[in-house]
Structure to design on (857 residues):
């Protein structure tokens, strides 16, 4: 064209439009011609310029004019061309051009410092480049979003049990207890004034996507063990969970005790009726926290001259009646057995001292920490697992699969379930072994990206592991007792704790209680998938939201939502469910399988016929599927959804229809086994119930005078819902009877509002109230004197039944799909011929403004 020297505008008018050439980057004539079915020879750009102020046409698929006006009613009220508004002002105000484009995300990621650049125009020019996305890709997470997620109650959050389950424990379950949550002079000198274990916790960060950090204590807060009542509160929680005792870490370094205040408090309080034992943490105290290397702060020594003091110290605790004994012998754990010089000979010497000085023979139990596994060569009586030591060795790390936030991250990351599975599959040794479960492990607060992480711990996985160990303890008792340990009660800086936190609440503690009582279930609890077509603010989408809220908040079921497109309700969906937007059908199989395995989804509810094509994919993945059908066949056919119904009906377990009429009519499109068909009203999420006082208050709140009668319509204001017929009825009725007041409760279609023009203006002038979308539907029903259903297709049967329960006359057209099914249940209900507005007005007046009795005429 340039070489030919043609005027570009003339060329576009003569040939370019027909050839699909774009006059500007943001007008696509080929798409426009197909989308709006233009006549042969009609110029696409001219058609758009003529129709654009109506708000019903879009210049490109990336801009949705109808959605824009629905989402931003101020633009609709101003009567502006939505696309012109977006190009000139909307993008500056952060408005989105469509539900598929996130202006705020796009600007922050690609346009920092370029506030005058239009994000949509920039995207159109660069969308073919790698890494350019119109909105945050599904599943993408950031460091900030990870912190936000983990510092709030999560989907598995549970309140802490307020009382014990009351069932006898299946085994004695002991939890290791860390006493490092109070200041001491040594820690002040080594780490800084006021140092406690909480100080380390503040260093934790999520190092990769999904990494559970930071962790924040909840029920007990950032407690101090310097306060005696803290220990009492911990014991109360432990008893409720059915725990059989604490194993306190015991710090003794050649005659010097450290961090002994909590244990001394416990010994001085016989009212703290809870069993206990000791674990001697017999390694050097170093700056690396792992006892292997680094600067030694206080060394562990084994001078035989100090043996008597060591033995006497232990025996002092053994003398407490609460100390745990097996077959009459006190239980003594040792953390690093092989560090004891000449271990067998030294242990034999200590045994003689215990016998001669105190008349006791302790059971020495070696922790399987680091390379210590078999207790017999070292002279110990038994061993106790100390996960993740031993169990993580040799497993395949998952580091290569991580999306790192910290490029210097070098910790080893293992799947939590892999460690649990190894524990359960490991052959039983010939020596006595106390098996141990760990609710999690992550020493990032101490090692800052250089430690070890068990990733993916959940209360249900932990509960299943612990429950299996308890079952095994019956077949493999240790010195006559069913015994299992947990690592740990309060190792916060190693991510191994049962105390409630902000994200999970008391879920891990409750899981412990259920496992001990025998109420554990294998694997994750089943969660539910809901499928919707988008997140716009319309009836079916709101139904999906209320379903999600009910299942999550009332029934405690974890919910995932799949959408085909986004919209304003995404935020509300996200508050109660995991939300995934899948625009392309080829994404469904992989996503469904991933959700089934990762979130243990066992069933799905598919909302509306628009999503029937996803049902076979769900069924093939092994899910039980319920299909909800709200639409009448005319709409299903017009939208091209009919072909998907037969495969969907053949694959799903149940099909639920809004009304018998809907079911019978849909049967003309696809066969369905009657045994799998159900009729359930849908559409109202509030139970109203009639109450005179509430009715009086509701009418007063709407300014209704004595003698005035309120007629309401409910729903989204478009042609399907018969908003135009409601407007006509209101205008005609008000002319005849001024005491009649009319109100439409629901959002309006911006395009229809402008098309009605004069009729709507006259009705509003005559007193028609446009209430908009409201949450207080119950109050409107209570205030009303009649419900007028002008819908051409959707019966809103729930609304009809609730209105009838309030004593309201329900007037519906015969053509309102399904209305005839429910009118008999409404004592005051009536049917009038479809589209006969005059007959409808006559019915209203006869019902609400009856003539005076004959003697007064």
């Amino acid at each position: 064209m340039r070489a030919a020297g043609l005027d570009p505008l003339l060329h576009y008018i003569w040939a370019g439009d027909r050839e699909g050439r774009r006059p500007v980057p943001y007008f696509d004539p080929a798409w426009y011609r197909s989308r709006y079915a233009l006549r042969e020879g009609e110029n696409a750009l001219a058609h758009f310029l003529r129709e654009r102020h109506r708000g019903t046409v879009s210049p490109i698929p990336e801009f949705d004019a109808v959605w824009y006006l629905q989402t931003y009613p101020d633009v609709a009220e101003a009567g502006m061309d939505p696309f012109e508004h977006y190009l000139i002002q909307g993008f500056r105000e952060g408005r989105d051009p469509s539900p598929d484009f996130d202006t705020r995300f796009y600007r922050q990621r690609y346009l920092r410092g370029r506030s005058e650049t239009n994000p949509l125009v920039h995207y159109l020019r660069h969308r073919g480049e790698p890494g350019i996305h119109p909105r945050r890709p599904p599943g993408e997470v950031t460091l900030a979003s990870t912190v936000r997620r983990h510092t709030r109650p999560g989907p598995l959050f549970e309140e802490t049990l307020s009382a014990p389950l009351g069932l006898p424990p299946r085994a004695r379950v002991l939890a290791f207890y860390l006493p490092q949550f109070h200041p001491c002079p040594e820690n002040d000198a080594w780490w800084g004034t006021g140092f406690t274990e909480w100080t380390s916790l503040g260093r934790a960060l999520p190092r990769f996507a999904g990494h559970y950090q930071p962790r924040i204590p909840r029920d007990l807060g950032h407690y101090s063990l310097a306060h005696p009542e803290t220990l009492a509160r911990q014991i109360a929680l432990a008893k409720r969970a059915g725990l059989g005792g604490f194993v306190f870490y015991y710090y003794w370094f050649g005659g010097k005790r450290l961090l002994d205040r909590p244990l001394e408090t416990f010994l001085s309080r016989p009212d703290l009726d809870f069993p206990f034992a000791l674990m001697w943490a017999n390694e050097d105290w170093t700056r690396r926290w792992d006892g292997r290397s680094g600067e030694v702060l206080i060394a562990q020594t084994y001078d035989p001259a100090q043996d008597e003091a060591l033995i006497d110290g232990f025996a002092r605790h053994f003398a407490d009646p609460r100390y745990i004994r097996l077959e009459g012998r006190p239980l003594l754990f040792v953390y690093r057995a092989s560090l004891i010089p000449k271990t067998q000979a030294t242990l034999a010497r200590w045994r003689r001292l215990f016998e001669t000085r105190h008349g006791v023979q302790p059971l020495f139990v070696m922790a399987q920490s680091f390379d210590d596994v078999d207790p017999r060569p070292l002279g110990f009586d038994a061993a106790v697992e100390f996960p993740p030591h031993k169990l993580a060795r040799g497993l395949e790390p998952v580091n290569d699969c991580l999306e790192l936030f910290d490029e210097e991250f070098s910790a080893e990351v293992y799947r939590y379930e892999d460690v649990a599975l190894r524990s359960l599959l490991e052959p039983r040794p010939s020596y006595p072994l106390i098996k141990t479960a760990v609710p999690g492990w992550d020493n990032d607060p101490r090692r800052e990206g250089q430690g070890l992480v068990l990733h993916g711990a959940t209360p249900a996985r932990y509960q299943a592991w612990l429950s299996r160990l308890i079952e095994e303890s019956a077949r493999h008792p240790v010195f006559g007792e069913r015994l299992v340990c947990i690592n740990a009660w309060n190792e916060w800086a190693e991510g191994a704790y049962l105390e409630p936190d902000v994200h999970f609440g008391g879920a891990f503690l409750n899981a412990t209680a259920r496992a001990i009582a025998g109420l554990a279930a294998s694997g994750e609890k089943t969660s539910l998938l809901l499928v919707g077509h988008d997140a716009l603010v319309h009836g079916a989408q709101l139904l999906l939201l209320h379903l999600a809220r009910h299942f999550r908040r009332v029934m405690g079921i974890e919910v995932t939502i799949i959408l085909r497109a986004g919209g304003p309700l995404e935020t509300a969906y996200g508050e109660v469910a995991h939300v995934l937007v899948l625009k392309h059908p080829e994404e469904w199989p992989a996503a469904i399988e991933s959700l089934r395995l990762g979130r243990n989804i066992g069933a799905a509810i598919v909302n509306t016929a628009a999503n029937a094509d996803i049902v076979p994919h769900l069924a093939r993945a092994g899910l039980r599927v319920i299909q909800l059908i709200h639409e009448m066949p005319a709409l299903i056919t017009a939208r091209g959804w009919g072909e998907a119904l037969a495969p969907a009906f053949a694959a799903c377990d149940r099909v639920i229809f809004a009304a018998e009429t809907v079911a019978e009519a849909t049967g003309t499109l696809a066969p369905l086994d009657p045994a799998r068909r159900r009729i359930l009203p849908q559409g109202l999420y509030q139970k109203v119930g009639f109450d005179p006082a509430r009715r009086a208050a509701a009418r007063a709140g709407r300014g209704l005078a004595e003698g005035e009668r309120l007629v309401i319509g409910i729903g989204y204001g478009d042609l399907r819902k018969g908003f135009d017929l409601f407007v006509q009825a209101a205008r005609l009725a008000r002319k005849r009877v001024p005491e009649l007041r009319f109100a439409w409760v629901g959002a309006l279609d911006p395009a229809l509002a402008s098309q009605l023009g004069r009729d709507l203006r006259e009705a509003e002038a005559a007193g028609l109230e446009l209430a908009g979308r409201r949450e207080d539907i119950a109050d409107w029903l209570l205030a009303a004197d009649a419900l007028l259903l002008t819908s051409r297709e959707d019966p809103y049967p729930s609304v009809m039944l609730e209105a009838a329960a309030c004593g309201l006359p329900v007037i519906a057209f015969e053509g309102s799909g399904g209305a005839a099914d429910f009118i008999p249940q409404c004592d005051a209900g009536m049917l009038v011929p479809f589209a006969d507005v005059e007959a409808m007005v006559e019915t209203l007046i006869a019902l609400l403004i009856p003539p005076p009795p004959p003697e007064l005429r």
